[in-house]
Design the sequence.
């Protein structure tokens, strides 16, 4: 898988998926509309400062409390290249992988807003270019990297319709 390069956008700890995309926008609204309001309850300027290819760097337990898959869809529409956090909600982590959004569990200390990041999922290394930090994390398993490279579970299964678990 290619390396991910983008700018850090910091979010705090304990962000549940209701804060990713508020339920007040869900009834009758499409995901593109919801994406334009992502994280507005905790970071009102998030969407206006975010550029496709940037990386969310969040505190512990990003994506807790809900299995709301629209949270991942909204981030994909915004062009989020990856999410880095010390820990993720279990359902969010799996939804992210299934929808082709790389998620990395590692130490985020010393990372500031707009720092340039390079993430190598195969090597399990994230470089913070300025101030020159390096964070090591367990490389994602080959099967997960294959799903991510395909764009998620559904694109993978469409590409390999005869695939079977060994």
Sequence:
């Amino acid at each position: 898988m290619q390396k991910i390069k983008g700018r850090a956008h910091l979010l705090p700890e304990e962000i549940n998926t209701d804060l990713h995309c508020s339920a007040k926008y869900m009834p009758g609204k499409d995901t593109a509309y919801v994406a334009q309001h992502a994280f507005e309850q905790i970071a009102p300027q998030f969407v206006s400062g975010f550029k496709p290819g940037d990386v969310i760097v969040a505190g512990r337990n990003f994506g807790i409390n809900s299995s709301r898959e629209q949270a991942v869809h909204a981030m994909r529409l915004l062009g989020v290249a990856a999410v880095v956090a010390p820990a993720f909600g279990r359902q969010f982590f799996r939804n992210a992988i299934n929808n082709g959004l790389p998620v990395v569990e590692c130490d985020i200390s010393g990372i500031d807003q707009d720092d340039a990041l390079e993430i190598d999922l195969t090597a399990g290394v994230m470089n913070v270019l300025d101030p020159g930090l390096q964070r090591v994390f367990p490389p994602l398993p080959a099967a997960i990297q294959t799903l991510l490279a395909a764009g998620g579970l559904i694109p993978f299964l469409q590409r390999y319709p005869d695939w079977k678990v060994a």
The domain at 4-159 is CATH 3.20.19.10 (Aconitase; domain 4).
